[in-house]
Design a protein that fits this description.
The chain is of the alpha/beta class. About 35% of the residues lie in helices and about 20% in strands. It has one domain: Metallo-dependent phosphatases (Purple Acid Phosphatase, chain A, domain 2, 4-Layer Sandwich). β4 and β5 form a beta hairpin. The structure holds manganese (II) ion.
């Protein structure tokens, strides 16, 4: 019996150092489903052109998807801009994985959602490809710096998880009004097509909210935030923040015996991070 009806995942960026494959494997283990929609930037061919960082865990992620498809789950891959090479093979099937440019998913309660990666609504990647590519290199560099910075913060006893790349991205994109413009143009397109909502990715900002009577959903990513959207068996959608297995900084670690029986591990300061991460 599947635990949820559908999983919506995007921006996994397999092939990069930043990909959180182990956490994704934990999430997948806990979420058997009828449908798995992979909504773009699953494999990062852009980054792999520069250098390949392919771990055993990333291999396992691919194997899990293939396995789920073989065992009767519907697995659909909708390419994004980082795996745009796959767009040449639309309507083909890889093993049992379907490939599509976009898809309209009908939820258990009959609502119709456009599934699309969303880079076509991003004015930066659409008209200034070189800016996007440059930003991509800078982003990778920031992720590396962050590893050093996290170590320094731990040594200084500063608690909580903080992402330099996430911070920089937020600042830059806030300044550009990037996120808002993106959401607005996605919603505009969904409205024109007479659908009930959209589930997309691309901007690494998980969201699920009503905009002008339509539902705007974004899967977030498995680079920084480890987020996904799930559809429950009754058709209800939910954003899942997969914080299990997050490194617990020494300063906030608590002795196990102080926790009441059956209580989940204490929420880390990651919670504040996720609230900040997508400016409204
Ligand atoms: Mn993208």
């Amino acid at each position: 019996m599947p635990q949820v009806r559908s999983l919506f995942l995007s921006d996994i960026h397999l092939g990069t150092r930043a990909c959180q494959a182990e956490r994704l494997l934990e999430f997948l283990r806990e979420h058997p489903a009828e449908n798995v929609f992979l909504i773009g930037d699953i494999v990062d061919f852009w980054a792999m052109n520069r250098s390949i960082h392919w771990t055993p865990a990333q291999n396992t992620v691919v194997q899990k998807f293939l396995r789920r498809a073989r065992h009767g789950e519907r697995v659909m891959l909708i390419p994004g801009n980082h795996d745009e090479a796959l767009r040449e093979y639309l309507d083909a099937a890889f093993g049992d994985i379907e490939l599509a440019g976009e898809h309209v998913h009908v939820t258990a309660d009959g609502r119709r959602f456009l599934l699309i990666h969303g880079d076509e609504f991003d004015q930066v990647t659409r008209h200034h490809r070189w800016v996007a590519l440059l930003g991509d290199v800078a982003y990778e560099w920031l992720v590396r710096c962050n590893t050093v910075l996290s170590w320094v913060r731990r040594k200084l006893g500063i608690s909580g998880y903080w992402s330099l790349a996430g911070y920089a991205k937020r600042k830059v994109k806030k300044a550009l009004q990037f996120v808002l413009d993106f959401e607005e143009s996605v919603i505009h397109s969904v409205h024109q097509r007479g659908l009930d909502g959209v589930i997309c990715g691309h901007i690494h900002c998980a969201a699920l909210r009503e905009v002008n009577g339509l539902i705007y959903g974004n899967c977030g990513d498995w680079v920084d935030s480890c987020t996904a959207i799930v559809e429950h068996l009754d058709g209800r959608l939910e954003v899942v923040y997969w914080t299990q297995g997050m490194p617990v900084p020494a300063a906030v670690e608590q002795p196990v015996e102080e926790l009441p029986q059956g209580m989940p591990a204490p929420a880390l300061s990651f919670a504040t991070e996720k609230e900040e991460s997508c400016a409204s």
